[in-house]
Amino acid sequence: MTEKSVAPAFDALDYKIIQHLHDNGRATATSIAVRTGADVRTVRNRISRLISLGAIRVTAIADPSSFGYQTAADIFLQVDSKKEPELIQRFLSMTEVSYVAYGSGSGEISLEVRFKNNAELREFLVHTLSGIPGVISIRHTLVPQILKNIDEWMPGDGDFNITEPVQVATLEPVKKNHKASPK
Fold it and tell me: Taking Cα atoms as reference points, which of 45, 32, 10 lies closest to residue 154?
């Protein structure tokens, strides 16, 4: 009998917390609690749960252009499927490579690479990759501008158990309802 994977349920508060951390990865549980109207302990527990489930990672993302990497390319490789595991390990260790994935067929590998200029990219394509035993063919495309990157992606509100519209765009604190005292 095979075990079924059950996706954890996420709700509107999870969505708000993720959105606030997405906007500011350094936001504190206290500031998120103020902005969402939730208890600070609840926010801390939810953040811990989201991290432990692997739903979010709190990390620093280096901007390649800040370090002089102006050239990006997607590379599609056909490799000897018998050498695929060792090639994957080799590509994972290369500092030029920012992304490694399997393609849909056996022996297909996709890479995203970053270089300081086109000459470095050409050197990598013509001499480095073509000289690796097991690499059969190389196709590539230059990426002149990335319009949306993984650090900008968010799951849609349909991925959360949300029954009413959630407003998270504002960073203004949520005002709690207080009954006016009689005069």
Answer: 10
Q: Which residue has the tokens 């990006």?
A: 72
For the chain, what percent of residues have pLDDT higher than 90?
A: 68
Say if residue 154's pLDDT is above 90.
Answer: no
169 near 16, Cβ under 8 Å? no
Place of tokens 């018998």: 82
Domain, as residue range, for 54: 12-60
Q: Angle 62-130-74 (CA atoms, 0-180°, nearest 5)? A: 35
What was the pLDDT predicted at 112?
Answer: 96
CB 29 within 8 A of CB 43: yes
CATH code for the domain of 89 = 3.30.70.920
Assigned domain for 161 exists: no
Q: How far apart are CA 13 and CA 151, in angstroms?
A: 21
19: Cα separation from own chain's centroid: 14
Mean pLDDT of 133-149: 93
- Residue 55 CB coordination number (10 Å): 15
